[in-house]
Amino acid sequence: MNFEKIIDSYKDDIIKSTQELIRIKSVEGEPKPGMPFGEGPNEALEYALRLAESMGFETLNVDGYAGHADLGEGEEVVGVLVHLDVVPEGDGWTYPPYVAEIHDGKIYGRGAIDDKGPTIASLYAMKAIKESGVKLNKKIRIIFGTNEESGWGGINYYLKKVKAPNLAFTPDADFPVIHGEMGILIFNIEKKFERKCNCAVKINYIKGGNRPNMVPDYCEALLEVADEKKEFVKEKLDKFVEKTGYKLSLDDRGKHVIIKSYGISAHGSTPQAGKNAISQLIAFLGEVVECDCDASEFVKLYNRKIGMEYNGQSIGCGFEDSVSGKLVFNVGVIDMNEEEVKVSVNIRYPIKYKREDIYNGMEEELKGTGVRIVHIEHLPPIYIPSEDTLVQKLMSVYREFTGDYDSKPITIGGGTYARAMKNAVAFGPLFPGQEELAHQKDEYIAVDDLIKITKLYAKALYELAR
């Protein structure tokens, strides 16, 4: 069945709907009655359900945690798992993050590729199937999650209330098919400071980052600096910047100075694609903080055990396997004052390992330092063999549509809703070799790609539901 002409006729509507959804700032906020994740995610959910209803689909809002829209009948259900929430926008955008301006054929905005553009593409793919009049033997259901970026409470609540689809894909990663996802750990590295600082260069605070699963693009430290040390700090900074190429600046405020570190945001699963503002700043502080107080000792410990590494090798968890590659280690947030420090870390660990392996390795390396590891969240790895029927069907659709017969199913460090249920995989929206801008400034989706994935998802859903 050829859905392409139908979808071409939707082009203006697809663009308009994508822009409208991006304009909703759906970062998780304070809970309110009927809005468990705040006003923004709830507004996005209500928008998606209204749009689905206007297309003639039956919808359900599950207490504001999630919702769905159905096409067709049948006992078996083919699911599309999407999310409407976004990470904070960060700084340094060329175009406003919640205006959805179009430049050079690209729609710019937070959530454009992760996951609002693919959400709209999936909805219009369902509309094209409906309008074509083809016969389906299974029901197609698009499920709208509302806090994928910050805890999965929405999809977990939904799946306690509504039976999971029999099989599903989520348009929230890469093509061709993601058949494995690494395990994900979020935890804090914490230490109480007992030996207080009376140094000539004293750290009052260090603050930086937005979320554990984002490479931080800004971090600052307030230092109390004795007069005789002012020039020392300034000279050290100039030499450090010249040596490393890191972007740091000094704001002289008399008795205090603020050191500002500017990085480049990226997804926590690909920290090498960004520049970690926290690690840059602490690397510099290691050059100027000289005493033996606990704050200074923590700076030294951080530089020895974490530093600028992405794979956790110095902190005892530098594992890798043949299926998914090396562990990925991302420091996302720091909050340090004169009393204590908390560093939030996001790890993607290889499929063949267990979380106990990761924690045991780190605890061994940190033994005797007074540092605690405080567990926050764990998502186990998933793996579906490449010979599986779902994987093979989606690969067949992808190859026929794109003519790409070379690409094979892959594993990733990212975490998608495919983990939320059995028999689910990630499928797009990024094509091989395309730039990954999820969680980064100037996130966009190209209009041509938006239409292309709509056609591809229509074909995939038809093949899975026929």
Automatic annotation (TrEMBL):
Its cofactor is Zn(2+). GO terms for biological process: L-arginine biosynthetic process; proteolysis. One of its GO terms (molecular function) is dipeptidase activity. Keywords: Dipeptidase, Hydrolase, Metal-binding, Metalloprotease, Protease, Zinc. Residues 196-243 form the Peptidase M20 dimerisation domain. Pfam families: M20_dimer, Peptidase_M20. NCBIfam families: dipeptidaselike, PRK07318.1. Belongs to the peptidase M20A family. PANTHER family: ACETYLORNITHINE DEACETYLASE (PTHR43808), N-ACETYL-L-CITRULLINE DEACETYLASE (PTHR43808:SF31). This is Dipeptidase PepV.
